[in-house]
Design a protein that fits this description.
The complex is a heterodimer of chains A (479) and B (50).
Chain A (H helix, E strand, L loop, with lengths): L2 E2 L5 E2 L3 E3 L6 E3 L9 E2 L4 E2 L1 E2 L3 E2 L27 H8 L24 H7 L15 H8 L18 H8 L18 H8 L24 H7 L106 E6 L3 E3 L5 E8 L8 E13 L4 E8 L8 E5 L9 E11 L2 E4 L16 E4 L6 E9 L5 E12 L1
Antiparallel strand pairs in A: 1-2, 3-4, 5-7, 6-8, 9-19, 10-19, 11-18, 12-15, 12-19, 13-14, 13-18, 15-16, 16-17
Chain B lengths: L3 E4 L2 E13 L2 E6 L2 E6 L3 H8 L1
Antiparallel strand pairs in B: 1-2, 2-3, 3-4
The chains are: A mainly beta (479), B alpha+beta (50).
Amino acid sequence: MQIVDKDGNIFGNGLEVTGPDGKPKTTGGGGGSPTGPAGGDLYGTYPNPGVDWNLGISTYNMYFYPLTNPNGYISGITGPMVISALGYTPYDSTNPANYITSAALTPYLTIISAAGTYYPLTNPNGYISGITALDVTTALGYTPYDSSNPAGYLNAISGSMVTSALGYVPYDSSNPSGYISGITAFDITTALGYTPYDNANPAGYITSSALTPYLTSAAAASTYQTILVSGTSIKTVNSTSLLGSGDVAVQPTLVSGTNIKTVNSTSLLGSGDVAVQPTLVSGTNIKTVNSNSLLGSGNIAVQPTLTSGGNIRSINNQTLLTSGNLNIFQQLINTAGSVITGTTANSISTSTTIASTFLGTQSNLQLRVKILKTTGSSTTDVRLYINTTNSLSGATLIATAQQMTTAGSFQNFWRDIFINGSTMYFFPASTAASNDLTNYTAGTFTIAASTAYFFIVAIQHGNTTDSAQILRTQLFYAT
Amino acid sequence: MLHKFTYNEIEYTITGPIEVISDTQLHVETDKGIILVDDTMDIYQELVSK
């Protein structure tokens, strides 16, 4: 019987079935049934050999394929199959170059730590190769005596050792008593405590240079004050000498606000002038009240505080107190006119100049003329003109009163005039009427700026025997 | 007809009728209002002679 291993090696002899009964025979047999002893894995003899299952090579790998996969085809490849086939674990796709990470170094020693941990292979036991004096001293903890002088005896004494042992410098052998060998000038001066005269000036005369720190009498007199004599060369204080010891009772130092008063919080101490009000002189540096001096004692009668409606009237319930203008009509003209008679010429009865202040824009002018025709029955005309001169020549007619013919007749001749900008508006100038309380086409006149005008009331009669008079002419102004 | 005249450096233009109000006085309607012109003014004679 033939067996094929995984590597394709064939072991044993094959069987050939040729017989009509389906029995096997060996391949080397002829056309009939096999005869003789069986071989291979068969035992016994043909035609009925037995199979010895225990024969064969024990190392053979024997495969028995399942009936579902009689050929033993593999259905897949696993990692372990690949590793088994390769004989080692291949790199995976995440680290195809198989780099190691720092974690892989954990089991490794650095060169330094290795050197500190292990002895080199040349001296695996770390034996020392020699001992120095320092090693010995270090090992002992002190410096030992050497073998030549193990007890550490001194072998010489120096001068300094002797001096140190004595605590002072001893005399040496050449002068064990310490006698001095000579005397210097310094020694003498030190011994005397002062510098003695020398032989060059045994008498100790001083030279002129020695006088340098001294003053002559003249220099001293010009430098220093002579000795003070109280009452002679130095004054006394309240007959008390300033010389000698002890305290002289004087006024203590003044401290403003403490022991000397101030003036209006200003100190009186120090230099300069303290500004204070000069002595008041009535009428000179202080006013009087109604010629009465404010100086002196007593009361000055003055007007009490005004209280609107209390001790001062009001105007149409408007107080006259407080600042600003009280807008009421102001009387600019209040005069009587002269009697006009004996002429038929247009003649001035009264005229008054009006300042430009009252002829500005928004000025309201109220003319009130009281006319009395006293005599005659002819016509009497009263007219109002304005002119920059007190003359009818070139004057501009502003208003005409109702014509009067009856003696004893009286007329209130009224006109309200308004100025807007520089234009004066009024009832038609030549229309005769007592008042202007009606609708009308206004007459106009242009006011020259900053110019005063005369308001002229003229009377003209139709007959020289007529007579008339302006009893009162009034002109009121308001804005 | 005279249309303009000057008095006290003011020029007047006559715009309306001239009214005789007395033997020596006129009322002249001008662009500056009704002006009284009397015989003391140079224009008076010129106006009354027309």
